[in-house]
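Thread: Modeling a multi-component assembly for a lab meeting

Hi all, long-time lurker, first post. My supervisor asked me to bring a structural picture of a complex we are working on to next week's group meeting, and I have zero experience with this. I have the sequence lines for every component (634 residues in total). Could someone generate the structure of the whole assembly? Inputs are pasted exactly as I received them:
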Amino acid sequence: MGGLPRWHILSGIMATRQAQVLGRWALAPAVTVLAAWSFVPLALTIYFAFLRYNLQDPDNTGWAGFSNFYYFFKDPYFVKDLINTVLLVAGTIVTTVVGGTLLALLLDQPFWGRGIVRLLMISPFFVLPTVSALVWKNLIMHPVFGLFAGIQRFFGSHEPLDWFGRLPLFSVGIVVSWQWLPYAALILLTALQSLDEEQKDASAMDGAGPLSYFRYIVLPHLARPITVVILIETIFLLNTFAEIKVGGIGGIAGNLTYLVFSQLNDATDVGMAAAGGLVAVVLANVVSAFLVRLVGKNLEA
Amino acid sequence: MGSITLKNVRKAFGDTVIIPGLDLAIADGEFVVFVGPSGCGKSTLLRLIAGLEDVTSGTISIDGEDVTEAAPAKRGLSMVFQSYALYPHMSVYNNIAFPLKMAKMDKAAIDAKVQTAAATLNLTQYLQRRPGQLSGGQRQRVAIGRAIVRNPRAFLFDEPLSNLDAALRVGMRLEIGELHHKLGTTMVYVTHDQVEAMTLADKIVVLNAGVIEQVGSPLELYKSPANQFVAGFIGSPKMNFVTGAPAVNRNAATIGVRPEHIKISKDTGEWAGTVGVAEHLGSDTFLHVNAAALGTLTVRAEGEVSVSYGDRVFLTPDLNRIHRFDANGVVIR
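Re: Modeling a multi-component assembly
Sure thing. I ran the full set together rather than chain by chain. Output:
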């Protein structure tokens, strides 16, 4: 009896070990790419953030301590741009989650041509941010040639609204929301389709009307996908840049990303830009962690 | 109160007719089981009664009141679904309380009702759990709890045991039977399992392709099936059908004999055959006997029978318990 089972156990252990070694080698390329893609830039950013490094002042070198951070916070634009960032992210998330939920509910209904409508619906997501910003600014929101101006004139207005001039942050919010609405709607639609039909029947038997069904069955079911949408959108929206740059409103309604850009581009201060970039990273993490917890708690309880 | 009357109920999805027109009366307090093969329209019929599907034509009335156009919740019925359809994000307590909350009952009354239902169903210690943390049998009980708190006029069960394993199924079957005796409420139960039908029902409705084949008590259906379909569907193992000479001798196109109504002998008997597979269950022995021109006959012998594969045996049907059918499969009495 003795020898055979022991041999089996041994070979089992060896097989496991071999699989582990093989697994590590198989993962190595992915890990290497990931490291090169994210760790190296992050490490460089941290390094630059503590360095005196201004392209217009090449003789001034050496360690800067925390002064880059200090001057970034002291920048007259910092507080304003921080508020703009939060407003833009929060406003867009509210618009896209609410709008996306309603759109998803609509697209979940059976109607003729649903497949084509769904396909058309995702299309804004494929438009490059610069392109969509240009289209919105010059064809839709322009005070002279724009579609909105045309509508206003049709209703008798002589002085149509200059969207980007008068409401810069709100206008960028509309453009960004238009781009992200399909994403939210698509994720939420997929979630809706995984909702068990018998739940609907059961709640109908239990006396839940359409609103109660939405409030007590559908919304809790969507809680998790909504947190996913919020998380992903937060990360991407904190980086909104193209729409602000193309809109030409960086000076009046810029966000932190734009401030980092202007430190680098206008002030050519690499050290300060790196410090600002780090602040933005930390901010992104704090905000998204906070949001996810808030939404998760409210919807699942 | 909970009598349900269906009058000329018809259901079609587009051109596909599920129920071509059906009349049925369910008395107050009765346990009625709809049984039939899959696709026979039994679940559709239950959903029509529940109001989850609209009838194409005909009327449904509960306690004499026409509810054909009434919303599901207005019919005063509760339903237990095949997948239980518990709300996954709510605790057991909130699941059971949900219909009461929708009925805008005050909190104290809801709590009293939920606690009573939980006590009846042995769920008290699980009230704070989510459905995902419960076993299949416990989920089933939560679904029943959610159904009983509303004091419905009738319960509708849609294959409630089909997701449970065999041992639990027997246990839950007993619990549902017990519940019916305790509450005395009308129950309409859909299943494809004739054992569930036989054990639970006061009245069985055998459905085939949307048509009622026969209505009767379990023993009525067992003793005098109206046609070959019912004869073959009710009873386990299935009734043996024999055509040819033995049938013609008895002035029938087909005769049917239940496996338990055939005597087996090693020496003499009406039909000869060789034993195929023999299933020894201890209490019973099921023999699959290859009887030449008659085909394979199933024989149920009580207790242990010492025959084995390939043995030559003789079979004699119980003369008083032979069912005769004409060419259309209708019984000849």
